[in-house]
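Design request, tokens follow.
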């Protein structure tokens, strides 16, 4: 019989790598808590219409990449419903905000999430069909200040702090350009954008036949996507197209200037990228992406986000301007692993504090008892078996733990344990009362 494997584009995460995921998530939770974010958990599948209306029917995510199915009706009175595995979580968070009337509190909502998302993309390093996002959204009624450029800057400053705390250097400070870089743009308000799209369409008309096939199609269906094109021959033409900055109205320009001034004040470095329009339709005004040069190859977008001031209304809710981001957690982990490898530093010490080796099966119960007591004292401990030969116990202990405790008849009768530390080869007799302190040391 053939063996079954994880589906293409999905993967298992195993120890010790999961320890790194947990450490990253613990740092994320600690940083987000300091910025007053609370956790939201929304369902993994939603009504397909949520993404069609929220993310946009014409986007690649919705038109090509969603896992959608018709959920069978279970009774004659029920209608079949089209459901979709969430390809992103912003639409779900805004749906939940509307459904639970969070706007009625009048308060700014600062919500974060960590969870799997699903897109039917061509799998490659850093690009999976099930991937994890760490995201956050700040939204609320206008009176809560949700539209303020201060919020944009705060979110970006939090991201810079998070990446600093995770040990990912800033590109400006890193050798060999291995660090993170923030690209920033404003795509204007809901009224600026159509004016820009019209100008873009007009400018594309005479040149589109010289562009790649994808761009010829995008020139018709979604001209903004032309700006994402990576085909080298197209670049000089695209660089000459009109820039969105020239189409922002006074309010959008002032908003963007204030975001930039606050970032400068907080020492968050960025570069303006007039071509950063992002692939989801809900964006207005500020858009951004952080790239990392280490470990990601061509999939170098570590995270992306922006403002979505009209999304709530698009989903039938009240006016609720907002801004947020999502970090590709898989990519964050790849970046950390590549940085650690380059520095020849282990990322996680997966060694236990101690391995207890009973010398015979008569000491098995005492070994288990000792393990129980040491674990209760907060130490990580594995127990061998009295039927193991001493050589096997040592080999196993050396693989798993920093120290071995030998537990024979002698040790039990005297109350002194033999403890060997592998790193320096020291072997000592330690009184039971001093054992935990010695193992910690
Ligand atoms: P996005 O740019 O589509 O934005 O995705 C955010 C991040 O998720 C990307 O920068 C990337 O790191 C990661 N990502 C996307 N697709 C994959 C994949 N197939 N495999 C691995 N990682 C991937 C959003 O999803 C928006 N909801 C972000 C946002 C929140 N905007 C406002 N609030």
């Amino acid at each position: 019989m053939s063996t079954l494997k994880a589906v293409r584009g999905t993967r298992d995460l195993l120890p010790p790598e999961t320890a790194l995921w947990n450490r990253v998530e613990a740092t994320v939770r600690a940083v987000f808590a300091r910025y007053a974010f609370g956790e939201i958990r929304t369902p993994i599948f939603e009504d397909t219409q949520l993404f069609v209306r929220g993310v946009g029917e014409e986007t690649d995510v919705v038109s090509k990449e969603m896992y959608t199915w018709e959920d069978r009706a279970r009774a004659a009175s029920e209608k079949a419903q089209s459901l979709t595995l969430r390809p992103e979580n912003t639409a779900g968070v805004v749906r939940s905000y509307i459904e639970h009337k969070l706007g009625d509190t009048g308060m700014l909502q600062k919500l974060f999430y960590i969870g799997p998302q699903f897109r039917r993309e061509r799998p490659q390093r850093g690009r999976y069909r099930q991937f994890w996002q760490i995201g956050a959204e700040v939204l609320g009624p206008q009176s809560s200040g949700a539209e303020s450029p201060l919020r944009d800057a705060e979110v970006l400053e939090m991201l810079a702090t998070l990446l600093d705390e995770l040990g990912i250097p800033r590109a400006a400070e890193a050798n060999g350009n291995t660090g993170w870089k923030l690209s920033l743009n404003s795509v204007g308000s809901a009224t600026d954008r159509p004016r820009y799209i019209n100008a873009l369409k007009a400018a594309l008309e005479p040149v589109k036949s010289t562009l790649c096939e994808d761009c010829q199609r995008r020139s018709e269906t979604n001209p903004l996507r032309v700006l994402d094109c990576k085909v080298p021959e197209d670049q000089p033409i695209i660089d000459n197209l009109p820039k969105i900055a020239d189409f922002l109205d006074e309010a959008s320009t002032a908003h963007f200037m204030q975001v930039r001034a606050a970032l400068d004040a907080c020492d968050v470095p960025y570069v303006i990228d007039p071509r950063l329009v992002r692939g989801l339709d809900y964006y207005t005004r500020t858009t951004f992406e952080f790239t990392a040069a280490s470990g990601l190859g061509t999939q170098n977008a570590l995270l992306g986000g922006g403002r979505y001031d009209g999304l709530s209304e698009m989903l039938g809710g009240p006016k609720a301007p907002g801004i947020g981001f999502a970090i590709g957690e898989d990519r964050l982990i790849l970046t950390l692993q590549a940085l650690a490898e380059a520095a020849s530093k282990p990322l996680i010490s997966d060694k236990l504090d101690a391995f207890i080796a009973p010398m015979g099966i008569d000491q098995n119960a005492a070994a288990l008892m000792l393990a129980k007591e040491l674990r209760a004292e907060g130490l990580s401990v594995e127990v061998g078996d009295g039927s193991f030969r001493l050589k096997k116990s040592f080999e196993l202990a050396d693989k798993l733990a920093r120290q071995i405790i030998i537990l024979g008849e002698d040790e039990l009768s005297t109350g002194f344990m033999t403890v060997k530390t592998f790193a320096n080869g020291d072997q000592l007799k330690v009184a039971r009362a001093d054992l935990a302190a010695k193992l910690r040391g």
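Comment from the thread starter after seeing the answer: thanks! Residues 104 and 141 are 8 Å apart (CA to CA).
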